[in-house]
């Protein structure tokens, strides 16, 4: 089943997007800050979510890992 039709997979993709964008903004801040608008603005917004809600995002990552581990 694809990630769009499975809710748990969709949440996992969103969490990975937020975490990856936050890391990319940490490593390459100039590139991310230049592209605040347009298609690449999604990555900048995800990086902001990851930076500002870092404890909650990390808690969601841990819960998702436990959920996936227990499900298999």
How is the topology of this model organized?
Layout: H1 7-27, H2 29-34, H3 41-52, H4 54-71
Helix pairs in contact: 1-3, 1-4
Describe this structure in words.
By secondary structure, this protein is mainly alpha-helical. It has 4 helices and no strands. It has helices spanning 7-27, 29-34, 41-52, 54-71. The model has no long low-confidence stretch (mean pLDDT 86).
Please describe the structure with a list of short key phrases separated by commas or semicolons:
mainly alpha; golgi apparatus; methyltransferase activity; globular; 4 helices
Q: Output the structural class.
A: mainly alpha
Shape: globular
Helix and strand run: HHHH
Helix content: over 70%
Mean pLDDT, as a whole number? Answer: 86
Strand content: under 5%
Q: Sheet bearing the most strands, described?
A: none
Which regions are unreliable across 5 or more consecutive residues at pLDDT < 50?
A: none
Subcellular location: Golgi apparatus membrane
Function: Involved in the early part of the secretory pathway.
InterPro entries: KISH_domain, Ksh1
Keywords: Golgi apparatus, Membrane, Methyltransferase, Signal, Transferase, Transmembrane, Transmembrane helix
């Amino acid at each position: 089943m694809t990630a769009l039709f499975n809710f748990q997979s969709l949440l996992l993709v969103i969490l990975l997007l937020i975490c990856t964008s936050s890391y990319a903004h940490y490593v390459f801040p100039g590139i991310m800050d230049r592209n605040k608008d347009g298609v690449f603005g999604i990555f900048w917004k995800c990086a902001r979510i990851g930076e500002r809600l870092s404890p909650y995002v990390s808690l969601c990552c841990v819960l998702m890992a436990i959920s996936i581990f227990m499900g298999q």
